[in-house]
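Input for the complex:
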Amino acid sequence: MKFSFLTLFPNLISSYFTDSILKRALDSKIIDIEIIDFRDFSTRAHKKVDDFQASGGAGLVICAEVLENTLNYISTKDSHIIYLTPVAKRFNQFDAKRLASNYKHIIFICGRYAGIDERVIECFVDEVFSIGDYILTGGELASLVLCDCISRQIPNVLGNSKSLEGESFESNLLEAPVFTKIIDNSKKVSNLSIPSEYLKGNHSRIRVFKNHLSLKKTKYFRPDILKQRQTNAK
Ligand code: 6GU
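Predicted:
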């Protein structure tokens, strides 16, 4: 899978791939990234990329022509172009799986300021996503969130593919808590015992018990997704 990032801040993107799982995926060529500073495609004086809003109002807008120039330059054949914006459907785990299995090249357009000229979305963008109900300073973090979620769905990116099984959201349930066995008795946390069922080695009972804890956690933290689960079951 190839990911292209169109951004005014290439360092924000590249830094995320210098460590851990995505670095390993890059090194082993399971994923490939291309980071493009779209300021390089400005034909205006001083490489200006933004302009006042046609309607008047606060905040500058990224000009359509600079993004069109950039998209004309890079290979968009068979690509899927995504623009990150709070004005969109919220990204979820099902989107991550769908995008991982349906596309070979995803292009992220990262906006800044008051956003990009809407005509770019109309002419070029295949899909728009928000990552939550808050406003970021730009689309870079959001594009990395999508790239991370999509990448870990690609075979061999995670060391152990079993890690993908039974993850939170797959069944509209949050995951049960996890523990390690060994603890230094001098530490504060060793005063708390871990659920005895976890230690008895009966895996079918552990599964039932963990499912019970999952339901409790979900009910407490995310009653909205629990409702979704009940609707799906009908
Ligand atoms: Cl995709 N972009 C920005 N700027 N803010 C956001 C967002 C995206 N998703 C949530 N907030």
